[in-house]
Amino acid sequence: MVNGALRKKAESVVQVGELFKDMPFNSRHAFVGMVLFFAFVVEAWEMMIIIFLSGEIAAEFSLTAVQTGSIIGAIFLGMIPGAYIWGFISDKIGRKKTMMYSLLLYTLFSLISVFSVNFEMLYAGRLLAGLALAGMLVCIFPYFEEMLPVKQRGKYGGYLSAGWPIGVLIAVGVTVLFMEVEGALGGWRVVLFISSLGGLWAFMLLKIPESPYWLAGKGRQEEAK
After folding, report:
1. In this structure, are residues 61 and 120 in contact, taking their beta carbons and an 8 Å threshold?
2. Terminal Cα distance for the chain, rounded
3. Does residue 130 belong to any structural domain of this protein?
4. How far apart are CA 176 and CA 194, in angstroms?
């Protein structure tokens, strides 16, 4: 009788991964997808904006072609070590917190860049912004896949990718609107300031749950389910 009870209990234990096999796509999944979609838009916007501003920055700081290219590449250079660092952090504190901290730190460093007085300060700000933004890059797609029903992961993961060209178009639009404005309301600093505020989308991440796979990996099966 005891063995039978233990066998019945074991059969009743369902792993979190099993729950995703036949789960239907619902409004909760759609909400998570919307929040992540706009986070990805912000990421693309920020990564591309400096390219459109590089001409005016070069003129203000009298940069050489090599220095201008360095400013453009600084954020990408920072993302290389950032990806490894945030990958480790995300396994420790969770996907949700990693994405939030990543966007908030990016906002801080990007805003510092707005007040740069020389090439060195701007380069450092962009490098640190890339280091921070890498946390979003390494987590956003794995997290979304971990939230979706198995049969829907490929399709909706592809939809999330559409945020990239939209972010680039927004970067172009903001640049066109504000670069030519005279006085304090225009110029590359204003455009970069507006772009930096996109990182405040991190507060929307408060409304999405933690990855159930991460919770299960930490032994928090009931929370995951």
Report:
1. no
2. 29
3. yes
4. 13
Predicted confidence (pLDDT) per residue in 2-18, tens digit: 444 444 444 445 577 67
The model carries a pTM of 0.86
pLDDT classification of 87: cutoffs 50, 70, 90: very high
pLDDT of 55:
93
Contact 214, 146 (CB under 8 A): yes
H helix intervals, 94-118: 95-114
Q: What pLDDT, in 10s, does the model give residues 119-164? A: 999 999 999 999 999 999 999 999 999 888 888 887 888 888 899 9
CB atoms within 10 A of CB 1: 5
Structure tokens at 154: 């490929």
User: What is the 8-class DSSP label of residue 201?
Assistant: G
Residue 5 in domain: no
175 in any annotated domain: yes
CATH classification at residue 150? 1.20.1250.20
Contact 72, 188 (CB under 8 A): no
CA dihedral 47, 53, 54, 59 (to 10 degrees): -160
163 within 8 A of 38, measured Cβ to Cβ: yes
Q: Which amino acid is at 86?
A: W
Number of domains in the chain: 1
Q: Which two tokens stand for residue 163?
A: 């945020």
- Would you say residue 99 lies in a domain? yes
209 DSSP 8-state letter: P
DSSP structure string for 36-69: HHHHHHHHHHHHHHHHHHHHHHHHHHT--HHHHH
